[in-house]
Amino acid sequence: MNISSTGVIPTSVQTFSIKLICTGLKNAEVIVEIQLYVSTHTHRNVTVLKFRRNKICLKGIGNARNDSILLEAGTLGATTGSLYVAVACALGLITLVVVTASAICIKKKGGVQEPTYMTALYDSNPHMFLRSALGRPPSAESGSYATIASVHKGPPSPCPYATSDNCQFYANSDACRVSYYASSQIMLISQISMQDPRHSEPSKRLRSLSVLRHTISLQRLAEEGIFGKIYEGTYRQHSVIVKTTKEAASKRLVSLFLAEGTMMYGLEHKNLLTILCANLDDPKQPLLVYPRSNRGNLKRFLVKCRQKKYNNIILSTQNLVDMAIQILLGLMYLHGQHICYKDLAVRNAVVDEKLQVKITDNSLSRDLFPNDYFCMADQESKPVKWMALESLLYNQYGAASDVWSFGVVLWELTTLAQQPFSDVDPFEMSTFLRNGLRLGQPVGCPDQLFAVMTYCWMNCPTERPQPNQLLAYLQDFYTALCRFV
Questions:
Q1: Does a structural domain hold residue 141?
Q2: Among residues 86, 113, 140, which one ends one of the domains?
Q3: Is the pLDDT at 75 greater than 60, yes or no?
Q4: Active-site residue 282, yes or no?
Q5: Distance between CA 262 and CA 349 in Å, rounded?
Q6: What DSSP letter does each residue of 42-106 carry, written as one string?
Q7: CB-count exposure of residue 241 (10 Å: 0-12, 13-18, 19+)
Q8: Are 103 and 24 in contact (CB under 8 A)?
Q9: Which of 105-119, 217-231, 303-317 has the highest mean pLDDT?
Q10: Are 220 and 231 in contact (CB under 8 A)?
Q11: Helix %, strand %, coil % of the chain (to 5)
C-alpha cells in the first residue's frame, strides 16, 4: 500500500492504491474493507467512508493485478449526518484502517473481478443462473442455481456465485430500498392501453418522410446482413446512417422493414433516435435515413469494450448505470406516448463518443443479430430470451413486459453484452422461467444493481417495479457512486 496512516487532506486531486496480487495457488475470495475517517482538529466532527470490494483469484493464474477500489453505494456513514464535511475539512486529519477479512470462500468457479470491466473469465462461464424460490439457501437439488428470498419477505440477497457451496445469504439495508420501489402494493404497473405502431400501415408516415434521392449520399458500407445493409452517408451535408434492404428481401420483409423503421416517426426525446427521412424510388430497396451516432450500435460498442479494442475507454459502474438511466428515460417517454416497445435490448440502441445513449427502432435487428431472435411456433421471429413470461406464454405485452426486458438490458450492460441464456433452448425458455430460474449475478455487478434486475423478473407483472420507480432507485444509486468515487 502507498497509504499513510494519518495526514492532511490534499487541496488537489491525488490517488492512493492497494496492490492485491494473486498467487495462483488456489481459487479464493478475500473481502477487503477500507475505512476512511475524516475529522476536524477538534475531533468532534467525524465522517466515516467505507470502501468494500471482493478480491477473487483463480487457481493457476498468478500475479494478476487488481489494484483499484470499488466503492459500494450505501456503505457510507457520517456521524454528523452530512458527508460534505469531508470537503470542508481541507486541513483535517485522515486515518486509514484497512481490515482484511480472513474468511475465504473456496469457489468451484471464479476469476479476477475488476470493477471497471468484465474479464475473459466471464467469457468462459457467463451463464450462472438464479432460482427465484422462496427463502432457501442453495441445496444439492439446485445444482448450479442459487435461491433468493421472497420479495414480500425481504429484498433479494443474491449469492454472486451460483456454484458456491459456502456462499451465505445476507440482508442488505440498501437492497431494502428496492423493496420500497418494487413491492409496493399501492403503486402498481400502469394499466393504460398500449399500442404498437409497427402494426399500423406505414404509408402515411412514409409520405411525410419522403425526400428526393439525390439528397441522400451513400459513402461506406458499415454493416451487412442476409437481407439488409447499413451505410454511412450524408443527407444535406449532415452525417447519417442509411438502412436499406437487398434485392433478395421478400415483399413481406420489406414491408416489415418499413413498418419498424418508421415506428417512432413524430416522436422527439433526447434518448430516442428517430428517423430523419426516407426514399422509396426503388420499392424493393427503400432507404431509411437516421442521424449518426459516432460509436454506433450499443451492443457492438460494449462487445468491443469487453474485448479491449478501445484503448482509451474503460467503462465504470457509473458509466453503465448512467447508460441504463438513459435507456429507461427513453422507454418512459415511449410509454407516455402509449407505445409498447416489445424489443428492448442493447442491440436496439446507439451510443456516441460522450456515452449518450438513444433507443432506436428494431428494423434490420433480426438480420444483423440473428442469434438474438428465434422463429417460434407462430412462425414469427422473436427475441425470446428478452421476453417476459406472459409474453412467451400468452403473447401479452405492456409496460410490465418492457420492464422485464429492461432487467435483461441491465444484465447486458453489466456483462458488456454477453448473450443471455446462451445454453438454454429457446423452445424451453417458458418452462425454464416458469420454474423460477433466472440469470445469475454478473461478475463485478453490485448487489444493489442485481437486486433491481431480480425485481424486473418477477413472475406476476403487477409485482414488477414501474419505470418511474426504477428511475428513482437508479438515480439514487448513480448519485451515491458519483459522489464518493
A1: no
A2: 113
A3: no
A4: no
A5: 15
A6: TS-SEEEEEEEEEEEE-TT--S------PPPTT--EETTS-TTHHHH-TT-EEEEEEEEEEEE--
A7: buried
A8: no
A9: 217-231
A10: yes
A11: 30, 20, 50
Alpha-carbon distance of 165 to 145, in angstroms, equals 11
Residue 451's domain spans which residues?
Answer: 197-484
Among residues 174, 322, 343, 372, the one annotated as catalytic is: 343
Phi, psi of 277 (to 5 degrees): -165, 180
CB-based burial label for 142 (10 Å; 0-12, 13-18, 19+):
middle
Which residue in 356, 357, 339 sits closest to 348, CA to CA? 357
Q: What pLDDT score does 199 carry?
A: 84
Q: Is residue 149 part of a domain?
A: no
CB burial class (10 A; 0-12, 13-18, 19+) of residue 437? buried
Give the β-pairing of 287-291 and 296-297.
unpaired
Taking the C-alpha atoms of residue 349 and residue 299, their distance in angstroms, rounded to an integer, is 8
Tell me the C-alpha distance between 171 and 173, whole Å: 7
pLDDT score, position 113: 33
What phi and psi, each to the nearest 5 degrees, are found at residue 296? Answer: 75, -150
Residues composing the chain: 485
Q: Give the pLDDT score at 354.
A: 93
What are the tens digits of pLDDT across the range 351-367? 999 999 999 999 999 99
- Residues 419, 324: one domain? yes
Same structural domain, 101 and 206: no
- Model's pTM, two decimal places? 0.65
Whole-angstrom distance, CA of residue 402 vs CA of residue 420? 16
The CATH code of the domain that includes 370 is 1.10.510.10
| % of the chain beyond a pLDDT of 70 | 69
Over residues 166-187, mean pLDDT? 33
Please tell me whether residues 247 and 359 are part of one structural domain. yes
Residue-level pLDDT at 142: 27
342-366 in b/e form (b: 16+ CB < 10 A) is bbbbbbbbbbeeebbbbbbbbbbbb
113, 142, 166 — which closes off a domain? 113
Q: What is the pLDDT of residue 1?
A: 67
Domains identified in the chain, total number: 2
Residue 139 lies in a domain: no
Report residue 266 as a C-alpha cell.
413524430
Residue 405's closest CA among 467, 314, 473?
467
Cα 409 from Cα 232, distance rounded (Å):
27
Mean pLDDT of 75-86: 36
